[in-house]
Amino acid sequence: MKRHLLCAALLAAATVCAGPAPQAYAAGCDENELYAFVTGSQGDFDSGDILALSMRNKLTGNSKPVDNRQTGGGANAINPLTGVHWFTVSGSKTYSTNPHGTPYNWRDLSGPSVKDGFAFRKDGYGYFLAKTGGRTDVYSFWHERPGGRQRITLSGMAEEPVDLAFDGRDRAWLVTADGALWRVDNVRTSTWQARLAYAPDNSGERVEGIALGRYEGEDTLFVSGSFTSGERFIARAVPDGGEVWYDPVPTLRGSGSITDLASCSFPSLNSY
């Protein structure tokens, strides 16, 4: 990441079938919002709450669609067909809830042991990354039948991914901790073949989350993470030849911080 931009970014604060026909997005799913896990104290937000940030207003906002009493946020996602939030805590426990509802624990998704990423396709299929036996696989499930999850083999990546998101063309974007962006063009197979889309610019930031949306009128890929100093950021991914650097978005000032990201926006990302 280019150093002159860093100070601007401080945040103190699987089934493989094609799925059903496209449906209208649920009323509770606002494609103009970015959903972020809060860790630590952030004003009225406690660790594990999910915060809604407005992409129309430079990622500001104070809406809390999920009041999570389970401390410690992990991965989070939102189903565009239902507006239901899904999230993990303590590495493996999976919950879902309507906005402002009471989270329900899905014991059917209690394993594999560690889940690093969570996302939904626009047709309502959910995906999560899970570490089993020293490797990371992808699992998919239809949101009405989470117990019927299926494992997808992830091939081609030089490093383990930490999160994933889907664009409007049903391509999967995966990010590694060092900020490299990988893409899978065909996600309707039992083996995902990933290719490196953009290498990181090697500035040393640690990336934890990825989500897509439209920011200032442009299709945007967002990441969240921390600087080498430990301070947090949300940033826009900016392609630069074969590399990517991250342009931080100044937002949320306080004592808390943000980890994983999610959205129910599916831009085409034609500029990426």
Question: How would you sum up this structure, described in words?
Answer:
It is built from no helices and 21 strands. The protein is an all-beta fold and 272 residues long. Strands 12-13-14-16-20-19-18-17 form an eight-stranded mixed beta sheet, with no helix packed on it. It is globular. The model is unreliable at 1-24 (pLDDT under 50).
Tags for this entry?
272 residues; mainly beta; 8-stranded mixed β-sheet; 5-stranded mixed β-sheet; 21 strands; 0% helix; globular; disordered N terminus
Shape: globular
Helix share, percent: under 10%
Give the C-alpha Rg.
17 Å
How would you sum up the major sheet? 8 strands, mixed
Strand order of the largest sheet: 12-13-14-16-20-19-18-17
Secondary-structure element sequence?
Answer: EEEEEEEEEEEEEEEEEEEEE
How would you state the average pLDDT, rounded? 80
Based on helices, strands and strand pairing, what is the structural class?
Answer: mainly beta
How far apart the termini lie comes to 17 Å
Unreliable stretches covering 5 or more consecutive residues: 1-24
Counting DSSP E segments of at least 2 residues, the number of strands comes to 21
Beta-strand content estimate:
over 45%
The tally of helices reads 0
Topology, element by element:
Elements: E1 33-39, E2 50-54, E3 60-66, E4 73-78, E5 85-89, E6 93-97, E7 104-105, E8 114-120, E9 125-132, E10 135-142, E11 145-155, E12 161-166, E13 172-176, E14 181-184, E15 191-193, E16 195-200, E17 206-215, E18 218-226, E19 232-240, E20 243-248, E21 257-262
Parallel strand pairs: 11-15, 16-20
Antiparallel strand pairs: 1-2, 1-21, 2-3, 4-5, 5-6, 6-7, 8-9, 9-10, 10-11, 12-13, 13-14, 14-16, 17-18, 18-19, 19-20
